[in-house]
C-alpha cells in the first residue's frame, strides 16, 4: 500500500495537513500491526446535532 502512495507522488504529511485543516477530524492509527496506516475520524459534535442526520439538518426534517 505504501508503495502505491510513493509511486503516485502523494505526500502523506501534506494529505494529513490538508485533511485536518479542511475537515473537523482527528487522525487515528487503530492498527498496531500497521503503524503507517492512518484514518481520519470526524468529530461527533461536528457531525451530529441533537441526533439529526446531515440530511435531516439540511432539509429541515425532524
Chart the SSEs and their pairings:
Blueprint: H1 2-8, H2 12-22, E1 25-28, E2 39-42, H3 44-47, H4 54-59
Antiparallel strand pairs: 1-2
**% residues in beta strands:** 5-15%
Helix content: 40-55%
Number of helices: 4
Number of strands: 2
Q: Given the helix and strand composition, which structural class is it?
A: alpha+beta
Assign an overall shape: elongated
Strand order of the largest sheet: 1-2
Q: What does the average pLDDT come to?
A: 75
Structure description:
With 62 residues, this protein is α+β, with helices and mostly antiparallel strands. It has helices spanning 2-8, 12-22, 44-47, 54-59; strands at residues 25-28, 39-42. The protein is elongated, with a radius of gyration of 16 Å. The chain has a two-stranded antiparallel sheet. It starts with a helix and ends with a helix.
Fill in the keyword field for this structure:
alpha+beta; two-stranded antiparallel ribbon; 13% strand
What is the structure about, briefly put?
This protein is an alpha+beta fold. Helices cover 45% and strands 13% of the residues. The termini are far apart.
